Amino acid sequence: MQARKTFLSFAPPLIGQEEIDAVVDTLRTGWLTTGPKTQQFEREFAKRFQAPAALALNSCTAGLHTALVALGIGKGDEVITTCLTFAATVNVIEHVGATPVLVDVEPDTLNLDPDLVERAITPRTKAILPVHFAGHPVDLDAISTLAQRRRLAVIEDAAHAVGAVYRGRPIGSGNHPTLFSFYATKNMTTGEGGMLTADEELISQARIISLHGMSREAWNRYQRGGSWQYDVVTPGFKYNMTDLQASLGLCQLHRLTDFQRRRKEIAHSYTRAFREFDELEVPTCRPDVVHAWHLYVLRLRSKGLNIDRDRFIDSLTNKNIGTSVHFIPIHLHSYYRAKYGYRETDYRTAYQNFQRMLSLPLHPGMTDQDVDDVIEAVCDTIRQLRTGARAA
Ligand SMILES: *Cc1c(COP(=O)(O)O)cnc(C)c1O
Q: Per the confidence metrics, is the pTM higher than 0.85?
């Protein structure tokens, strides 16, 4: 087989002339920071995902932090979250002085396991922070039922889940805080950026916290007829989105339906090709959800293969296919290990799956040829490295 000549990136952003024109237009308006474009982006985003209200921020991480502060979570409080996530989800819990309580994942979706959440609740628990891993919605009804019964807040890390739907309800349509990411590798991007959706009351509070704790926005203050008056009601942060980012975001939002359609097509092509192999476990998609397909996480079944995940990745790299691993479980990172005394095997499902998982290229800019190249590289790697085929 002929390997492809050029390297296929894992997740490059898809930026077209529309985005370039939109940013240039914003530059020409003379209004660069939070202003009319940001307001429009918030309005359109909220409408699209049936959110009660939305607040655009400079990252998902900033939004998670803001939500925790708005809910009054701090020292002495516990927040239950998944051990299989990006560090930002857990770092923000440390930022507010609360204690992250890690819980293991379900073996099929790799999402937070509601039964284990229930067992982790203590009198100090204040919130549950699930992550929609890879874009597959977490079992929100199970989590919400638990939260209501024990009077806990729910904060959704929806960094992977723009466009995902749970039992007919778009992710972001609930009243509790939900955070989206527009980082460069995510399903839609503003370079860096994020969106918080929640009920109106939480959004107005978060708006103040996210901008110096000021009771009025700069845009209103400097408009003609706007007042110079403002009051600092809390020592807030500097987390606002700029109009440059929002003009990018509006274009990406308008193209999202096409982006998602292509992601789904690619994921289905992969699954059709890979489910034939005993050595591979393809991602699950439960019947009551729409998957956002942010990531295509393939798992190796080590029995049939005489190589491990790292060598599988090396083989794909040699065939010019970019990959990644999502995620190194939180309890393996040195800060968290040292602070909480975790052992490798503390979260068995996450740990065992981490060792055999890799994420394949998945982005709407991929051509059919790119998709075929990935499939061929994976199939070839398996055939070359099957147990017993080594000596041949
Ligand atoms: C990307 C990501 C974040 C952070 O998003 P930023 O916008 O970069 O702050 C948080 N959680 C998860 C699960 C992510 O993948």
A: yes
Q: What is the pLDDT of residue 217?
A: 56
pLDDT at residue 391, as a whole number: 41
Question: 252, 272, 301: which is the final residue of a domain?
Answer: 252
Domain boundaries, position 358: 257-386
Cα gap 24→43, rounded to integer Å: 22
Q: Which residues of the chain have pLDDT under 50?
A: 390-392
- Tokens 């806990």 sit on residue: 152
Written in H, E and C, the secondary structure of 162-175 is CCCEECCEECCCCC
CATH number at residue 272: 3.90.1150.10
pLDDT value, residue 239: 98
CB of 202 within 8 A of CB of 66? no
Q: Please report how many Cα atoms fall inside a 13 Å half-sphere around the Cα of residue 45, on the Cβ side.
A: 33
Query: Is 186 labeled as catalytic in the residue annotation?
Result: yes
Q: Are residues 232 and 353 in the same domain?
A: no
Ligand 1 lining (C-beta closer than 6 Å): 59-61, 85-86, 88-89, 131, 157, 159-160, 181, 183, 194
